[in-house]
Amino acid sequence: MTEPSGRFSYEGLDRVIHEKARLGLLTSLATHPEGLVFADLKHLCGLTDGNLSRHLGVLQEAGLVEIRKGYARNRPQTVCCLTPSGRRRFLDYLAVLEQVVRDAASAAEPGLSTRPT
């Protein structure tokens, strides 16, 4: 049986999201719909201030995250959260990633079909 051309190209694996640190950031933000303070996000993802700022800039430029600067108890505070379109793109990305896992599992155990019918 011949596979269709491009069957395993996984076009939905968005390069902006696929980078390890950004995937971790988006996952953290997806699990905290109210958003996360910069320091908490930094801690959850194990990033430095500089790395976090750089990756958030990429995600913000792509329209995936919103960064709000304000004050809490008279101290500057940066809160990051997913945009509605960022949440949708992230969920679409996860759906493609789940297909990758199903395809890999199917190849690992050829007798099992995990592909949806």
UniProtKB/TrEMBL annotation:
Gene3D superfamilies on file: Winged helix-like DNA-binding domain superfamily/Winged helix DNA-binding domain (1.10.10.10)
Domain of life, per lineage: Bacteria
Winged helix DNA-binding domain mapped to chain residues: 22-101
Protein name per the record: Winged helix DNA-binding domain-containing protein
Taxonomic source organism: Methylobacterium isbiliense
